[in-house]
Amino acid sequence: xxxxxxxxxxxxxxxxxxxxxxxxxxxxxxxxxxxxxxxxxxxxxxxxxxxxxxxxxxxxxxxxxxxxxxxxxxxxxxxxxxxxxxxxxxxxxxxxxxxxxxxxxxxxxxxxxxxxxxxxxxxxxxxxxxxxxxxxxxxxxxxxxxxxxxxxxxxxxxxxxxxxxxxxxxxxxxxxxxxxxxxxxxxxxxxxxxxxxxxxxxxxxxxxxxxxxxxxxxxxxxxxxxxxxxxxxxxxxxxxxxxxxxxxxxxxxxxxxxxxxxxxxxxxxxxxxxxxxxxxxxxxxxxxxxxxxxxxxxxxxxxxxxxxxxxxxxxxxxxxxxxxxxxxxxxxxxxxxxxxxxxxxxxxxxxxxxxxxxxxxxxxxxxxxxxxxxxx
Amino acid sequence: xxxxxxxxxxxxxxxxxxxxxxxxxxxxxxxxxxxxxxxxxxxxxxxxxxxxxxxxxxxxxxxxxxxxxxxxxxxxxxxxxxxxxxxxxxxxxxxxxxxxxxxxxxxxxxxxxxxxxxxxxxxxxxxxxxxxxxxxxxxxxxxxxxxxxxxxxxxxxxxxxxxxxxxxxxxxxxxxxxxxxxxxxxxxxxxxxxxxxxxxxxxxxxxxxxxxxxxxxxxxxxxxxxxxxxxxxxxxxxxxxxxxxxxxxxxxxxxxxxxxxxxxxxxxxxxxxxxxxxxxxxxxxxxxxxxxxxxxxxxxxxxxxxxxxxxxxxxxxxxxxxxxxxxxxxxxxxxxxxxx
Lengths: 376, 340
Known about the structure:
The complex is a heterodimer.
Chain A: H1 2-11, E1 17-21, E2 33-39, E3 42-49, H2 57-61, H3 69-74, H4 81-96, H5 102-130, H6 134-155, H7 177-199, H8 203-209, H9 217-223, H10 228-231, H11 239-242, H12 263-286, E4 306-314, E5 317-325, E6 334-338, H13 340-345, H14 348-352, H15 357-367, H16 371-375
Antiparallel strand pairs in A: 1-2, 2-3, 4-5, 5-6
Chain B: H1 2-37, H2 53-63, H3 74-90, E1 100-103, E2 106-109, H4 118-139, H5 143-174, H6 179-188, H7 193-196, H8 198-211, H9 223-226, H10 236-261, H11 283-304, H12 310-339
Antiparallel strand pairs in B: 1-2
């Protein structure tokens, strides 16, 4: 009898198929590697392997002076470089206890929100492309181009901006720029509707995203998810609202949350964030005050010994900087980033379990990662 | 001698060449139409407005290195692209581009042959093509192609059932399996079958999309999930054969749908005396225009819709299309009997 049971077991033994997705794969958004264990087309488990884009930005920063680091922060989330710049500069300002002029804070708010729209454009394009709707991709890139033009006019660069300085802005906004920003808002408002027309009520889109990768609010918080990935589960956590920075305490906007915590809700949250960002940009551009653009920054930046943590809401979630200064040298003693993409990637394994291969790419898209930020 | 050998041979040469040219230009058309849908220009560099692009593509694919993976099953790996290409081409033997016309004092029919089981021939030959996909995935000895070929076989077999069941109701209407007779039946019954069988038309169109692996049913080659699917390991001309087979199949589906539902070579409203003027346009022109409309529709759909997931696709096939096809068949049968 015993041998029979063994044979019986061996007869029905099904081998899992181990399949390697990435680091060279069209839908892993960079050099992410996911090792999937499949039963048929069903994902039993997965391992997320990262580190292919590690450039040692944190360690590098400990050997650069405070101003030079701004340039390194560009290279983390390279599709939202301005946000990283703002986050870093504000952290150092907090360390220096420096007052930033109101005009600079307003411009920072505008740049951050333009950057959020640019980043979300890239997200909606690639996410839709992963699910097979390829036209949205080009539409979204068309509008992203307009934002890059605005950035180019402001700081001369289109991808890695180096657009902030500790204490304020490197340059004042060019004349007529504010008007162009407002014009862009009008264009974008209509275009968001265009994306939604292609996706939001599309039956195939609904079938592909509804009920996929459901995660409850408490579980999402427990995994450390942040940004739209967390808000999709109905947790109203937004650093812009909870711990306002730049000029966010002076503008009106709503924190968008979802209800079911599935891929579709995360999609809806980001789509609505487009509109909220436009709302913020309009208010900030219209209310932009006159005045200086840089605060009283010492010639030699050398913060007193101490440590600080400061977070901002990047397009992907809570982007935090932890910086320690020893008070003696002109570079940070310890520099550490809390990258939202990295924390959101934590949730991928939990999200994909039990879904199909096709859903894996939808879920990677739905948590919106940038590998430059995950690996740093 | 001339009637038995020379003319058929000449027709085969013309149809085969025309098909291959049409297929390569179909690729260009697809790239152009999708580009216009996406506010781009598409290929513009080779020749004016990129019209020579297909030739450049063909040269590129021919001079590329032809790689066979070391662990692949060599014979099957080589045979697979051929198996998928050949059926796509020989289907054209029974597609009527026009009726019998007189040309230089000689009666010439604008089709290669008219066999009395034409439709059955098309259905069975077209389904051989799927072997090419299955064998390609299996012989590559690689995981992604294997997954893709499993998907492909499941998908093609289930949609074949739905499409063939639907075609039966058209056969009931026409009372013949011959492609020429089906067109004649539409003339004699004073109605294109798209109006008599609207359900069947939609079902065949959806099933046709699925059988040709077109979006939104292009799962076997889902680039985003399976990195190219069953032809991941193929390169050069062998890859091109798969590629051309897909487009050739698209043209087959549009030709078949045109013949069965839109009256093939017949002009619009063929029985209305006032529109008799339309008969002065060559019959094959009508056929080409109608087929082109479907090809355009296929491309348009690809530019617009996201992709179905594997399980949703199977559900759609077995739980929606097949029951509807059976229902359509039953209703057609009952109505037909009652009218008799």
